Amino acid sequence: xxxxxxxxxxxxxxxxxxxxxxxxxxxxxxxxxxxxxxxxxxxxxxxxxxxxxxxxxxxxxxxxxxxxxxxxxxxxxxxxxxxxxxxxxxxxxxxxxxxxxxxxxxxxxxxxxxxxxxxxxxxxxxxxxxxxxxxxxxxxxxxx
Length: 144
Fold this sequence. Notes:
Blueprint: H1 3-10, E1 16-17, H2 23-33, E2 37-41, E3 47-52, H3 53-63, H4 72-75, H5 89-99, E4 103-108, E5 111-117, H6 118-140
Parallel strand pairs: 1-2
Antiparallel strand pairs: 2-3, 4-5
């Protein structure tokens, strides 16, 4: 099971924000697309960081309502971890757990090819576990 397989089924579309977008604008973008994070990209589309709903909530906890006027560049995580389409689901789950992140950009040959969430990874792993259980049931029943 690879990240590339997940991207094939979910798609590779990514939603981005600009560094000067406010947290309020980003929150509206997240809600409109029903997603948990956006990549923050420069005018030339270089990835500068990632901004999640968690980052916005923490900012509100620290700054109150004024946090909604802070820019994406002020709130984003700059030290991003990424993965490749060839990485296994198990590898990515370990990275997400160890780094305590829920979204990873997927990079191939230096270019962005998608973004993967913990929900995507867990969904794939559950599907695989269900398939394995089905095969075991069939084997025990003598149908394999």
